[in-house]
Design a protein that fits this description.
By secondary structure, the protein is α+β, with helices and mostly antiparallel strands. It has 5 helices and 10 strands, in the order βαααβββββααββββ. It folds into 2 domains: about 120 residues, 4'-phosphopantetheinyl transferase domain (Ribosomal Protein L22, Chain A, Alpha-Beta Complex); about 90 residues, Ribosomal Protein L22, Chain A (Alpha-Beta Complex). About 30% of the residues lie in helices and about 30% in strands. α4 runs antiparallel to α5.
């Protein structure tokens, strides 16, 4: 059984500007430039915190100078050139989350339960999933359960939305697509949020809360 470490953090207010700049200096120039293009402070923080979570995760694996180790696939999925390691980052609302594991392929997704017109997503669900969403006591919760599962699978696969979501059936906590079997687990992360993780091997999960408002973290 593989072990996955899941690091998460949240933000409700802007960091002190000096601390934000200190953290930002840990990123390579291209990521600093990308961060500067976000107009909302929330977007700048979620982008920065995702990378800081990855730094923290790899630091605990005694891995430093990580930016030389990150490459991108033809579908723009970031990956580590270190043998065996894989990671994935997601953010929504006030939370950012990063999963990392060794000798495994993984994808993770977090979604805030924002009100949506669910009819807009009908074509992304199977018939059984759509029936379950509509018959549930809380349709929104059931929708986000399936949405995060599907997102975690397409992120683990690496092709993203090139994969047709309406073909992803969930059976006994697994999704099989193009002869690849993914083990999926969804859970209520905190009130109003859903999280799902997909892996190509059975796994256990260790959660780590990180507070970046403490300047001693990184």
């Amino acid at each position: 059984m593989h072990s996955i470490d899941i690091f998460f953090t949240s933000f409700t207010k802007p960091l002190d500007q000096n601390l934000f700049s200190e953290y930002l200096s840990l990123l390579p120039p291209d990521l600093r430039e990308k961060n500067s293009k976000y107009l909302r402070w929330q977007d700048r923080h979620s982008h920065l915190f995702g990378r800081l979570l990855l730094i923290e995760a790899l630091k605990r694996c005694d891995i430093n100078n990580i930016w030389d180790l990150i490459k991108y696939s033809s579908h723009k999925r970031p990956y580590l050139t270190l043998d065996g390691y894989d990671f994935n980052i997601s953010h929504s609302g006030d939370y950012v989350i990063c999963a990392i594991g060794k000798n495994i392929r993984l994808g993770i997704d977090i979604e805030e339960h924002r009100e949506r017109n669910l009819k807009d997503f009908r074509n992304l669900m199977t018939l059984d999933q759509w029936d379950e969403i509509n018959s549930a006591s809380c349709s929104l919760n059931t929708f986000y359960k399936y949405w995060t599962i599907k997102e975690s699978v397409i992120k683990a696969d690496g092709r993203g939305f090139y994969i047709p979501l309406n073909e992803l059936e969930v059976t006994n906590n697994t999704v099989c697509f193009e002869d690849k079997l993914w083990f999926v687990q969804d859970f209520v992360f905190t009130k109003g949020y859903s999280v799902a993780i997909a892996t190509n091997e059975l796994s256990t999960f260790n959660m780590h809360a990180i507070n970046f408002y403490d300047s001693c973290i990184v």
